[in-house]
Amino acid sequence: MNWGALHTICDTNKELRGENESQFSGVRFIDSFKHLLNDPTIKAVVIATPAVYHYQMVKETLLARKHVFVEKPLALNVDHGEELVGLADEQDRILMVGHILHYHPAIEKLKELIDSGDLGKIQYIYSTRLNMGRIRSEENILWSFAPHDISVILLLLQNELPETVYATGGNYLQKHISDVTMTTMDFRSGVKAHIFVSWLHPFKEQKLVVVGDKKMAVFDDVSTEKLFLYPHRVDWVGRIPVAYKAEVRVVPIGSGEPLKAECRHFLKCIEEKQIPKTDGNEGLRVLRVLQKSQESLNNNGV
User: Fold this and answer.
1) Model pTM score
2) Sign of the CA dihedral 142, 217, 226, 1?
3) What's the half-sphere exposure (Cβ side, CA atoms, 13 Å) at 55?
4) What is the set of domains in the chain, with CATH numbers?
5) Residue 1 pLDDT exceeds 70
6) C-beta of residue 57 within 8 angstroms of C-beta of residue 32
7) Do the strands 95-98 and 216-220 form a parallel or antiparallel pair, or are they unpaired?
8) Is 279 helix (H, G, I), strand (E, B) or coil?
9) What is residue 24's three-state secondary structure?
10) How far apart are CA 63 and CA 133, in angstroms?
11) pLDDT (tens digit, 9 = 90+) per residue, 104-125?
12) φ, ψ (nearest 5 deg) of residue 155
């Protein structure tokens, strides 16, 4: 398979274009998206723009009969997401969404542990994505950070959608843009999940905690070692629950860069006519949860 797939970079930002031109020799640079879509030698397009442009650009690309890889989120409302998924089917084109953690070796291993029953019945999931900076004015923290966490939680729970979603947050820097949100999801299976995201945090933290009735697992994307297993247990002694802590162990995971794996998956899906792991339907499931979370956020956590 030919991994030298980059043909053209389209960017209207002259400063970024200059940086890219020095980095990617032999690649064509243009500033017209329509020119790109009209080029018959280009078979697929990667859209990495602010989220507000995703719907229109993905739609135009699909109508030009090109495959699309769009960064998260798929769109900014469910109606637009459904339209794009339907259009991809009509045009017989691949639509893939950039939920990069699906391609992370630690998440792949974590899913394997859950599916094998090693953790037992999943009871609770807690995710944090916190940092200082990268503050946006086009979208709030929920739409900027939480898609990754929602996507992974749905993956680990076999694509089960929550029955209830409620979210609260705070707007501190800009009047109508949340800087901090906490989202809670309740699932029919009994699992409860929390997602805490903020770009106003004193240090960087990206953790996913999965609590099963046999073992607990932690994915720490900031740590050198990424995946940890805690075989703690609770025994009932004379009708009293007693917690017994066990030694944490590092779980070996495969090597590989998630972004590279994601890009290779897109190319492989095009070449072999496969459905991507994070296809339009997967992006649409995440979008439905995001939209309900935003509705709850707008109504003070209803």
Assistant:
1) 0.93
2) negative
3) 12
4) 8-98 (3.40.50.720), 101-259+288-298 (3.30.360.10)
5) no
6) no
7) unpaired
8) strand
9) coil
10) 37
11) 999 999 999 999 999 999 999 9
12) -60, -50
Q: Which residue has the tokens 């030298």?
A: 4
Q: Which two tokens stand for residue 228?
A: 């940890």
**Structure tokens, 181:** 């949100």
- Which tens digit of pLDDT belongs to each residue from 170-199? 999 998 999 999 999 999 999 999 999 999
Both tokens assigned to 108: 């792949």
- Mention every residue, 6+ apart, whose C-beta is less than 8 A from residue 252: none
Q: What are the structure tokens assigned to 281, written together?
A: 């339907």
Are the beta carbons of 164 and 186 closer than 8 angstroms? yes
pLDDT of residue 88: 98
CA distance 54 to 62: 12
Quote the CA–CA distance of 231 and 27 in Å, as a whole number. Answer: 51
CA angle 26, 56, 198 (to 5 degrees): 90
The encoded tokens of residue 116 equal 């094998």
DSSP output for 200-232: EEEEEEEEEEEEESS-EEEEETTSSS-EEEE--
Average pLDDT of the residues in 226-242: 91
Identify the pLDDT of residue 3: 60
Q: What is the pLDDT of residue 292?
A: 97
Which residue matches tokens 């966490």?
Answer: 149
Q: How far is CA 164 from CA 30, 193, 208, 250, in A?
A: 46, 11, 20, 34
